[in-house]
Amino acid sequence: MTIDLIERRVIACRKCPELATYIADVGRVKKRAFLDQTYWARPVPGFGDPLARVVLVGLAPGAHGSNRTGRMFTGDASGDWLFRALHRAGFASQALATDRNDGLVLRDAFITAAGRCAPPKNKPTPRQLANCFPFLVDELRALSNARVIVTLGKIADDTIHAYVKAHGSYRTARKPFSHGRENAVALPQHGDVTVLSSYHPSRQNTNTGVLTQPMLDDIFTRARELTA
């Protein structure tokens, strides 16, 4: 299954009627700063280089970020942090992501998420994540060049390790989630892959200093080393 086909299926998904209603309502009411904009208000597909060796997995779209722009990590503070780091590491053509047509290109990187619809309070339920899981499985199978999977936050990390348990194996015992933690795994379509964990670049983490820009830069410097 190709990435293009998978992403069309993501956009058409209506497995969680409560989320479809929620994101439509957000897109209708809007945020004051974006009253003049048309919200995407649909499930958000992954995007990037289909030959990527580095795959990033986030939590879920933000209500007024990706749910507005239609592109992962685009149009909110989390994306501002992420794309600055990706640009400095050479994975993104520019450091600022504002909308789907801003010219940004990912090089050797692909961004996706555990959930595809913006959830209330940024907290998807286990059932909602389970409904999205097959899309992630299909994406990872299609991204056969992947050698590093960067998990942004614990939910993304747990989701990827659920994939490893179901479809792959560990080279050593799994290490618990922590910023900069690495797990060596083997996946049928890829061979050896490193799961590289990072704190999520959410406002909660960046405003409190739990995650700093140098810490995030280190993640992508390491991802670059692992694909050298």
Give the second-level CATH assignment, the architecture: 3-Layer(aba) Sandwich
Quote the CATH topology.
Uracil-DNA Glycosylase, subunit E
Largest sheet: 7 strands, mixed
The helix/strand series, from N terminus to C terminus, equals HHEEHHEHEHEEEHH
Tally of discrete structural domains: 1
Q: Stretches where pLDDT falls below 50 for ≥5 residues?
A: none
Average pLDDT taken over every residue: 97
Which class in CATH terms? Alpha Beta
Helix content: 25-40%
What characteristic shape results from the CA principal axes?
globular
Number of helices in the DSSP assignment: 8
Strand order of the largest sheet: 1-3-2-4-7-6-5
| First and last CA, distance | 28 Å
The CATH homologous superfamily corresponds to: Uracil-DNA glycosylase-like domain
Strand content: 5-15%
The total strand number stands at: 7
Radius of gyration: 16 Å
How would you describe the overall organization of this protein?
The structure is a single chain. It contains 8 helices and 7 strands, in the order H-H-E-E-H-H-E-H-E-H-E-E-E-H-H. By secondary structure, the chain is an alpha/beta fold. It has a single domain (3-226), classed as 3-Layer(aba) Sandwich (Uracil-DNA Glycosylase, subunit E). Strands 1-3-2-4-7-6-5 form a 7-stranded mixed sheet, sandwiched between helices. The longest helix is centred in the middle third of the chain and has 17 residues, at 126-142. The protein is globular, with a radius of gyration of 16 Å. The relative contact order is 0.15. The mean pLDDT is 97.
